[in-house]
Amino acid sequence: MTNFDIVKKxxxxxxxxxxxxxxxxxxxxxxxxxxxxxxxADLNLLGTAADVLRERSxxxxxxxxxxxxxxxxxxxxxxxxxCAFYREASAGDAYVLSLDEIMAKIDEAVKLGAxxxxxxxxxxxxxxxxxxxxxxxxxxxxxxVQMHAFSPPEIVHISKLYGADISExxxxxxxxxxxxxxxxxxxxxxxxxxxxxxxxxxxxxxxKEVMLAAHSLGIPTxxxxxxxxxxxxxxxxxxxxRVREMQEKYGGFTAFIPWSFQAENTQxxxxxxxxxxxxxxxxxxxxLNGYIRNIQASWVTxxxxxxxxxxxxxxxxxxxxxxxxxxxRAAGVPFHSKIIDEFVHVARKxxxxxxxxxxxxxxxxxx
Length: 367
Prior knowledge:
The chain is of the alpha/beta class. It has a single domain, classed as Aldolase class I (TIM Barrel, Alpha-Beta Barrel), CATH 3.20.20. 46% of the residues lie in helices and 13% in strands. The chain has a four-stranded mixed beta sheet with strand order 8-1-9-10. A three-stranded parallel beta sheet has the order 2-3-4, with helices on one face. Strands 5-6-7 form a three-stranded parallel beta sheet.
């Protein structure tokens, strides 16, 4: 099917057709194009174009990683309005995991086949720098796992403990055992939005500084977006374009992961639907075409059925098996840890091949 055939298959909007034709010809789209696509009623057309770009970029392979999310503390000075997980230090259910508790969780995960440990926590002012370093060193001494750890707000927090700049902090953590950095704390990369929902958290330019510093040191990261709260359509597009501009410098983002905001137990309200989510996935693929290969479907926030549909809207990866997850669950999202057989079934039902990967998207096993 030619590009012309694709955009004419469902389109009733000439401007949308023109923008998608540009994308299918590998021309980068701008802010105005992105806003138009997100506002478009042509959902099927967006999905069709995004699916073509997905196949060109990532083929028909659906991937996932076996992982465990460990939140080492829920005490956090940031107190973001969208977060249902954080606690004051005086709260009865506030905690800091001991290193022995963390090692036990990792040992359990490794025995279940995990190759990645996603380790994140609150900005706890009472944790010392030795806690972070000893944790990483002990993990690397005992286990062969990828430490995908410490989002940019945590990196900035740890840099203050070191009394060092961002690059030096990341270098020290790398020397202790840090392998890659998750894209958490991005929310929306616009300070108007951040001032409204997370005024005590780092601004978007500091998030950018952390990511580019990591990339310059050869440390890969992911990029995320949490949408459906206080942002405008224009600010969603701005977020994606800013990620794209960062990627142009070092190419250090391995994946883009759009998450729909989960409002329960938080101070904010959210209005995202499954349709909104699919549109966001499709436009992410279209705007990031040629820049970021992997777009992750969020079964954690949307459920596996919607995540399966997202695989036809530009996504090529199902993320992690999530042996443990606490932050989204605190926002009232009901889910259980998905087993590999479910992921394999989903992909095969769509006629796609499926494989287990590591954090860097190296294929470990095909099914």
